[in-house]
Amino acid sequence: MDPLRSYLGRVLLEDVTPVVMVLTTPLAEAACRKSGLSFVDMLSPFSLLKKIDVPVRTASDQPYRLQQFKIRMVYASDVRKQDCEVADARIKLVVSEANENALPDLLSDPPQLEDVLKKPEAELCPLWIKRFNRELVRTLSFSDHETFDHPVACLLVVSSKDKEPISKFADLFNTNQLPPLLNEGIMDPQILKHYLVLHEQQDGPQEIAVNILAEMRTTLGVNDCKLLSINSSTQADGSDADNSWSTYKAHGLHNNEGTCFLNMDDLNEIKDFMQDFASNHIIPYMEQKIRVLNQQVATTRKGFRNQIKNLWWRKRDDVPEAANGPMYTFTSIESQIRVLSDYAFMLRDYELALSNYRLLSTDYKLDKAWKRFAGVQEMSGLCYFMLDQSRKDAEYCMENAFTTYLRIGSSGQRNATRCGLWWAEMLKTRGQHREASTVYFRISNEEPSLHSAVLLEQAACCYLLSSPRMLRKYGFHLILAGNSYYLSDQKQHAVRAYRNALFVYKQNPWSYINNHVHFNVGRWYGVLGIFDVAIKHLLEVIACSHQSLTTQSMFLNDFFHFVQSTGEKFDVYKLQLPVFNMSSLRVVNEDHRTYASNADVDVNESIWQELEEELIPSSSVVRTNWLDTQPKSSPFRNNKACICVAGEAVKLNVELKNPLQISVNVSGISLICQLSTNLNASETGALTTAAEEDIANTKPSISTFESDGNNFTVSKLDIVLGGGETKKIQLEVTPKVIGILKLVGIRWTLSDSVVGYQYFEVATQKKNKKGKRGALRSLNNNLIVIKGLPKLTGYIECLPAKAFTGDLQLLTLNLRNQSEHAVKNIKMKISHPRFVIPGDSSDLDLEFPQCLRKHVQSDSNTVPEGTKENVKGSLFAFPQDIKIQGDATFSWPIWFHAATPGNFSLYLSLYYEMESTTDIPYRTLRMHYNVEVLPSLDVSFAISMCSSRLQEYIVRMDVINKTPSDSFTLHQLSCVRTKWAVSTLPSRDSISFVETVPANQAVSCFFKIKDLSTSSCIEAADGSCGSDIVLSPGGSTDVFDVSRTPITDFHYQERHQQGKLAKVPRSLLDFILISKAVAVNSSKTEQLLSHHTCHCSALNQNPVWWLMEGPRTITHDFSKSCCEANIQLVIHNSSDHNASVRVVTSDCMPEKSQTAPSHESASGQGGWYDVSLENDIKAISSTKGAHSQKQSSESISPFVWCSLSSAQVDLKPDSSAKIPLKVCIFAPGTYDFSTYELHWKVHSSESGQVDENVTSGGGQGYPFYVNVLQGA
Amino acid sequence: MASTACFVIVSKNDIPIYEAEVGSAPKKEDLAYHHQFILHAALDVVQDLAWTTNAMFLRSVDRFNDLVVSVYVTAGHTRFMLLHDSRSEDGIKSFFQEVHELYIKIFLNPLYLPGSRIASSHFDTKVRALARKYL
Lengths: 1272, 135
Known about the structure:
The complex is a heterodimer.
Chain A: H1 7-15, E1 19-24, H2 26-33, H3 39-43, E2 48-49, E3 54-56, E4 64-66, E5 69-70, E6 72-75, H4 84-107, H5 113-118, H6 121-124, H7 127-138, E7 151-159, H8 165-172, H9 180-183, E8 192-200, H10 207-220, E9 225-230, H11 239-246, H12 264-300, H13 304-316, H14 333-346, H15 350-367, H16 370-387, H17 391-407, H18 413-429, H19 433-444, H20 449-465, H21 471-487, H22 491-502, H23 511-528, H24 531-539, H25 549-566, E10 570-573, E11 579-588, E12 593-595, H26 605-611, H27 623-628, E13 642-645, E14 650-657, E15 664-676, H28 679-687, H29 689-698, E16 712-714, E17 717-721, E18 726-735, E19 739-750, E20 754-759, H30 763-770, E21 782-786, E22 792-797, E23 802-804, E24 807-817, E25 823-830, E26 836-838, H31 865-872, E27 875-877, E28 889-897, E29 902-914, E30 922-934, E31 937-945, E32 952-961, E33 968-975, E34 980-984, E35 996-997, E36 1002-1011, E37 1028-1030, H32 1045-1061, E38 1069-1077, E39 1088-1096, E40 1104-1109, E41 1113-1116, E42 1123-1133, E43 1138-1145, H33 1152-1163, H34 1171-1184, H35 1186-1194, E44 1199-1201, E45 1206-1211, ...
Parallel strand pairs in A: 1-6, 1-7, 7-8, 8-9, 10-20, 12-30, 13-21, 23-30, 41-50
Antiparallel strand pairs in A: 2-5, 3-4, 11-14, 14-18, 15-17, 15-19, 16-18, 19-20, 19-21, 22-24, 24-28, 24-39, 25-27, 25-29, 26-28, 29-30, 31-32, 32-36, 33-35, 33-37, 33-38, 34-36, 38-39, 40-42, 42-46, 43-45, 43-48, 44-46, 47-50, 48-49
Helix pairs in contact in A: 4-7, 4-22, 12-14, 14-15, 15-16, 16-17, 16-18, 17-18, 18-19, 19-20, 20-21, 21-22, 22-23, 23-24, 24-25, 33-34
Chain B: E1 5-10, E2 16-21, H1 29-49, E3 57-64, E4 67-73, E5 79-84, H2 89-108, H3 121-134
Antiparallel strand pairs in B: 1-2, 1-5, 3-4, 4-5
């Protein structure tokens, strides 16, 4: 790009131009005032000469032509350094003027990335910024270290009405009034003078002026005098002049009065004058001056000799270092070189200028005149630029100048800014936008906030223009600029800067940035009074959870402040505070399924469905089928829609969260609903639901939804959410008429000032996403409202949330029919029949636990089998005649038993049918309770056969109290089957009763049980040992009847449950231990616990029992003969099948037979022979058979079996046989007749197929000691 | 230890996934956004610079007044950015390398979704300890 055509080039061509100092008389000035202009204003439009084509010859002999030229006309009074404050005020004016234009922009949407990129470069950096830059540069005009602002010529103007115009000229150029530059000797006062007579045509003919001109020419010189006539138009505001004048208005002319006496001729005359003045006077004068100065420089400085001399002279002259260096008068060679090079620059002989600047820079450097040095460097940088040579040099010079200016401190600061501006422009021209922006940023640090704001904005623009685009930098610098604007009280500019940066930070995950930008934009908009936009931006930040408490409250306060300033309630779509968790949304509508409490709704539907499988009519398990039975009601065809009943509330559960640390007040949370009563339209309506919702989403007009007050009522909820709190709320809408209810959204009021609302997500979208899991009921925001139905509500009274294991209670199920219609055919299903069993209608009046006591007169010991069957299915049908009338309550007893420890969810489902025909033939009431069962007593039984009695067992009951603090009293132990009798051990009577089991203690008790069913035991009849035994000292009156309804039912359940776990195929009996909790405070009712232990069996049970019977003491006189003792062996077959038993007696019981199998098994283990084990076995066997061992060692048998050695009997089931045995004893002593063995075979099949189904076994004889005494 | 040091891990998608003020200077509320602005703007420079070198440690890429932004780019183009006013480049390099190791451990966690916020408190304490050690 041609540097002359670049922006910087044009600026330099216009700004670095010869200055003409203007001196006018007051009368001349007044003449111009008539047209509302000053003299300079009048001439300045013509000071830019576009087509002059003047040949110029400077130092070199080769002339070149200037096509365009500009001179600056300045009043002499203005030729001085500007006052700082005045200059700043001018700049501020420029900025605030732009402000006013910016306001309408602020109301529109902030620009997007595409908009910004589409904008041409010029628009990014608007005109006023350029004006600002030039004004900033202009503050440095007429500085003393540069000469391009020094006047080249002087124009002296006198009016034709002035008396003695010649002397006036002399007065004008009086030294007292001349600017300080000339007076202080910084510049040469001998400058080109031009004299002008101003004549007003209105005042009369030109003759007077011509006369004056002639006079002037004679005294002041022929060429330097001119006549200019103006105001030739007679009537004010000549139209033709106005048109021609308007073309120059762009040059900053403001014709305030609107009157103009200048006509076309005047303008042409002015134009001719200016052209003549420039081309015939100024340019030749400058040419000549250049040549003269060049000659002078060449003689004093050029050449080897001069250089040496110069160096020598400067070194010797040790100047003290001053900030501005030594004082240079216009006569000094340095000043002359500077004038030479500046003139050359103005006449665009950049080569000449550059060489002189370089010459000068070394001088200044040696003189340590840093400011001048920097100025020279700056100019040489510009020369390089204009010559479009060596970019590196240009940049080096500019940087050098810039840093030097900065180094000299405050006096060079503004110069540094100017240098930076030029430098940045230079870089921009060359496309080095990134570098330019860093330069802008550097100079912005040196300037006051307003200036730095504009500079930062330019830096931002550069980042946008750089390649590749640096949008983040752009945004950042705009934010910095905005901040500076705000500091310098330019709020509109600040907002504009932030707005422009918004698109960079859109959807920005950098939270602090986001908050800062939106908060400030919002706040400033608010300050400017544009509240809606302010609120829109503040909405983005009010839900910031990561900020500190103070910041959050600041955001909120500002937000509410602006909201209140608007003076109206503000509707905000998707207000972020509080946050509604839409995934937690759940619509609870009760169609045929009704719920007892809100918590029951959360139970998985499949649990209910499983529970209700048997309960509800099979055809209606699939919901579409029962709908088909109602062909009249067409809206039900729509499977997607759910059903709700008029008059019954549809509930919606949703979670809301306060992200802030401040508590917020949320009031009036309610649903936004629509109820269309037109059923026919609903079919088409159902099809277009999605479309409707789209409309609702795009046009958030919530007011329409409020008008439906007579069709439905919505609940309003007020809550206060603490900092960071999450709450679950339930909203209700109760439709009153039949139709289609649509849940559209939620609305709420935040702190009584902002109404937030949010629509639910469109159902179809969700459905696609979730696929088959779309069965979630949150989708169904369309509900079909049907006619009112009877509805039961119910609860179980005082169902404990916590209970000890075994806790037995009588509870009441209370039902209430809220409608006026009756319901019938009530059925109930319970998920855990082990825990809850419905009672009988008669139980309701009973007093617990007295009702469980055994009554003497009550002989209904046996429970009819029918009830057991009923219980088994856990489906309970209330008696057919029970109907719950409208508005009636109904109670039914319920037995509760905490069977096993743990947490349990009890599900109860109640089925009922409508008396009258309705849309839905039946409904279910679902109840759900959570019960925590704590461990209490752990009861276990160990049963072992009694070896001394037939059909008797010893039972050891271990009771461990597992509670940490509660004690229990053992009350009663019962055997469930009636054929068993339990009694204490005979010795038990003397031992004190164990009354209570304290916490963490264990107790063991021993009992004896007896099979009553066998005919052999007749003693049961006397009732001394029944199936129950009372453990507490209270006596037998307190005995609870275990065979009555609740306990036996629960026992049945327990038996069923424990039977599943028990692996033992053959069980013996079940025990029920009833205990009482020791009440801490007596006010509490007696707590009864029943522990069921089922399927207890003896440790090792043989099908065959045997017992030796005979005299225990025999007195015999051995002197006569050996003694014969008659004993008999009673064998009992307790199995259900025939058994054959063989008895083998042996006189000598070999020890081998005992130990041999263990030997074999040990050796059979393939080398894994454990010595110690065998020793143990030997030790055991030796202790066991001590007697026989002794016998064998002596090899003398003290007795012999004499009647038979082997006998076989066949026994029928449950029958006994006696085998007589005879023993011959030879000496008195104590003998153990246990040297016999029994072998039996049980034929389990009736047909007697021996080879199969035979269980066989054998056993050693029990010890049977007989004392034989020597008779007298 | 540097008086000001703000460490941020920026994911591939320019989302900050971990932020920590590790400087010894007391934390000021208004500086938090200031630091974020500087680091966010520096991403523009990193974007260019990352592809000009093989090294992961890009040294100081940007400066704002007396604050310097040093950047370390992982192979997955996750950027560790440190805004600091200290001059010890070696320390910063070591810091970045150790943090990279920690980051890889986080990354190997099968439950960590790449590009999501690092919420591990263990990681946080480790990074702060490293900052005390090297910066």
